[in-house]
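Subject: Sanity check before I submit

Could someone independently write out the structure tokens for this chain? I want to compare against mine line by line before I put it in a report. The sequence has 200 residues.
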Amino acid sequence: MSLETRLSALGTRIGQVIKAHLTDTANPHAVTKAQVGLGNVLNSPQIPASEKGTASGVATLGADGKVPSAQLPAGGSSPARTTASVTSSVLANNASEDLSITLAKGYALHKVTLSVSGWLRVYRDTASRTADASRAQTTDPAPGSGVVAEVIGTLGVWDQAVSGWDGKTPPDGVIPLRLSNLSGAAQTITITLTYLPLEA
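---
Independent answer below. Compare away.
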């Protein structure tokens, strides 16, 4: 075989080796991600571009760093303030009655009105109401005693709403109350609570 033939065959073989090396995607040199500056990159699947900003996909961020409103789900309106009322039985003057009222599992209490003068206590749960039974009207409830709010007179209004929640397990939104008649005469008393439901 001539030198020329051997050089041509060697050139062909070198070309084949180079081509095979260039098309080999199995990392023939065993290069690690740390060697190419990717040591801190997680080997996790990425979100396909076709799923960004689309229904059943993921939201993107606008230039302001927030999710554009067009990508937010259509939501209902914010919860509105509402009222709930309960009326006692006929109570003698200075007599008390345990009542309950359906509000929400969590609520922000804005205002309490009584149809006549009384002493109303709103509780987290019935155990708190029972434990508070002997407290005098002139004594403040202890912190953590489960007394959410109390009103003496006919009106209770707060500059900041009083947060309350149903402490039962499971909660059902039925809130325990205790009412004492301070009107000076035997009669029924209607209690009206204005509140914002926070947890249905």
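---
OP: Matches mine. For the report I'm noting this point. The chain has two helices and six strands.
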